[in-house]
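As a warm-up, study this chain.
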Amino acid sequence: MVRVQFRDVSYRVRERWIVRDINIDVAEGLNVIIGPNGAGKTTLLRLVAGIILPTKGEVLIDGAPPSRARRHVAYMPAQLSLDPLATVDDVAEAMSYDSLDGSWKQSFRRWLEVLGMGWASGRPLMSLSSGEQRLALMAAALSRSPRLLIVDEPLAFLDVRNQMTVMEILRELADEGVTVLAAMHEVLMVRRADKVFILSAGRLVASGQPSEVLDEGLLSVVYGVRFRSYQGPDGEVLLPESTLQLKSFSD
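Now compare it with the structure written out below.
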C-alpha cells in the first residue's frame, strides 16, 4: 500500500490557477477523480507523477516527493507524444526506464495477452486504433508492477467489453494492495471505486465513497446537466438527461 497526500496544493499557469487548495489523502484501493473537462483532473495526476511541481503546497508519496518514489510508480497519460515509427515495445521499454535487467519484457507481453493485444507486440503504436493504443499503454504501465498506478482516462476510446476488462483489472489490483489513482469521465463505472474525488473549476467539491458523493443534485451542478437516479438490477444508477430537444427531420 502506498499513501499519497496533497497538502494545500495549488498549481498555476501564468495568471490562471488550474487547481486551488487541494487536500487529499489516498491510502489504498481504487481511487477515482471525476469532474468536467478543465476541472484539473489531469493536473492532479501529473503532480503525483512528478511531471510538474506545485506552485504552492506539496505532494507526497509515502512521505517523500514524487521524484524519490518513481521506482514503484507507473503513470499512463491520457495522451502520448512520440516518434510515429515507435513500436508498442519501444513505448513499453521507455516506460520501464529503470528496469536494467529487461524483466519488463516478459511482464509486458503477459499483460498484452491479458488485454487481448498479444498480436500487437512489435507493431508501430500509431498503426493501432485509438482504443488499441490505450490498451497497449495500459499493458506498458502494468508491466512495471507498480505499487502506485496512476492512470489518466484509462477507459477512453474503449468499447464496452474492454472498459469492463480494464475496470476489472484496476479493481483486482486495488484488492491486491496496489494503490490506484485514476481520472475518468465514465460516471457509471465509478461505482466500482473505493473512494471518489469530485473536482469542479480546480477545486475539490466532494470526496468519499461512491454511495456518499454520487448524488444527482451535486453531479447536476458540477456538470451543468441534469442527472436522474434510476433503479437498476445492481442498485441505483445515475444517468444524465438530454439537454437537447431534438426535432424530427420531417419538421
